[in-house]
Amino acid sequence: MSEDFDYYEILSVNKNASQDELKKAYRKMAMKYHPDKNQGDAEAEVMFKKVNEAYQVLSDEEKRGIYDRYGKAGLEGGMGGGSGGFEGFGGFEDIFDSFFGGGSSRRSRKPRERLDLAVDIVLDFEEAVFGCKKEVDYAYLKSCSSCGGNGGTKDTCPYCKGQGQVYQKQGFMTFSQTCPKCHGEGSSIKDPCDSCHGEGNIKVEDTVTVDIPEGIDNGHRLRVSGKGNIGKSGNRGDLYLNINVRDDETFIRHDDNIYIEVPIFFTLAALGGTIKIPTLRGEEEIAIRQGIKDKDQITIKNIGVKNVRSGYKGDMIVQVKIEHPKSYTAEQKDLLEKLHASFGGDSHPHESAFDGIVDRVKGWFS
């Protein structure tokens, strides 16, 4: 990162400054030190860079929080140690341009070809857990061969005179923005191409077979190299697959762990025993301890989902749901009453728990 200086001091604000106060301070300082006003002044250019660096950090709540707690050292990893957002004067002009709603007169921007493209795909639960081969249907853009990707016969844009940008002067400052007529191209289509109707590209339907790795999850993204859009130069971008996974009726996934709710009869909960349950890879016998409670959990190690990066498997968490009969026969009720009576005083724990409470409550009103 840059030399050591305090971001709040550079913007002349206190550490409790609101975002609105930061914006006002930044606008004032950026206009004061902007190179268009201080041509040839090396010190002003340095100050302009510092002002932009300070605002880029303090206007981002997450970065500001890190800076407040740890200083610039805490930002080194996320900010690239000086080689990321603060390298070169162009980066500062981007900040300045976005803040003031236009572009500096120094820069001319033309739209870039969008070679990469992304599509959403949906996987079944088991496809994501165990991996699979998946055929993905999608469409990419290819530069029109009839017009060479130009969209047709072009003339110089009359609005921007071929500059791709329009300019507006406000006092000592000159602002620019992308030409709204030609969108930065500097030219407009006179006679549209019959093949692409002036678009400059055509849509091509395609299918690609992708190896889905074991353990992939919602929100993950796969890159398929060289399957994106094809530009005028013949360069081709990449295809990105945004992963969405359907829910399963039995298993619930959280990261690499699998959760399952297992109903057990109340007598098994009271006596304890063993049961067989389904897992991702077949049946597993588990022990139910005597006296287990409703919603208690039993963890079985290393039979969950394989981590797509590390290869280690998560756990399976079994949550117990104790089931009670909805009704009893006369014989069952009689047996339960005899069982209840057989415990003697132990069958009335509430009595000892509330010893003396009635007398104590009466005392509140005496």
CATH superfamily of the largest domain: Heat shock protein DnaJ, cysteine-rich domain
Rg calculated over all Cα atoms? 34 Å
Helix vs. strand class:
alpha+beta
Q: What does the overall shape look like?
A: flat
Distance between the termini: 75 Å
Instruction: Note the run of SSEs as H and E.
Output: HHHHHHEEHEEEEEEEEEEHEEEEHHH
Question: Uncertain spans, ≥5 residues at pLDDT below 50?
Answer: 77-98, 101-111
Largest β sheet strand count, sense and barrel closure:
4 strands, mixed
Topology diagram in text:
Layout: H1 7-11, H2 19-33, H3 42-58, H4 61-70, H5 76-79, H6 89-100, E1 103-104, E2 117-123, H7 125-130, E3 132-143, E4 152-156, E5 165-170, E6 173-178, E7 187-192, E8 201-212, E9 221-224, E10 239-245, E11 252-254, E12 257-265, H8 266-271, E13 273-279, E14 282-288, E15 297-300, E16 316-323, H9 330-342, H10 349-353, H11 357-365
Parallel strand pairs: 2-10, 12-16
Antiparallel strand pairs: 1-6, 3-8, 4-7, 5-6, 9-10, 11-12, 13-14, 15-16
Helix pairs in contact: 2-3, 3-6
How would you characterize this protein structure?
This protein folds into four domains: 7-104, Helix Hairpins; 117-245, Chaperone, DNAj Protein, Chain A; 252-323, Sandwich (HSP40/DNAj peptide-binding domain); 330-365, no CATH class. The radius of gyration is 34 Å and the shape is flat. The strands form six sheets. Strands 11-12-16-15 form a four-stranded mixed β-sheet. A three-stranded antiparallel β-sheet has the order 1-6-5. A hairpin with a 2-residue loop joins strand 5 and strand 6 (173-178). The protein has helices at 7-11, 19-33, 42-58, 61-70, 76-79, 89-100, 125-130, 266-271, 330-342, 349-353, 357-365; strands at 103-104, 117-123, 132-143, 152-156, 165-170, 173-178, 187-192, 201-212, 221-224, 239-245, 252-254, 257-265, 273-279, 282-288, 297-300, 316-323. It is an alpha+beta fold and 366 residues long. Helices cover 28% and strands 29% of the residues.
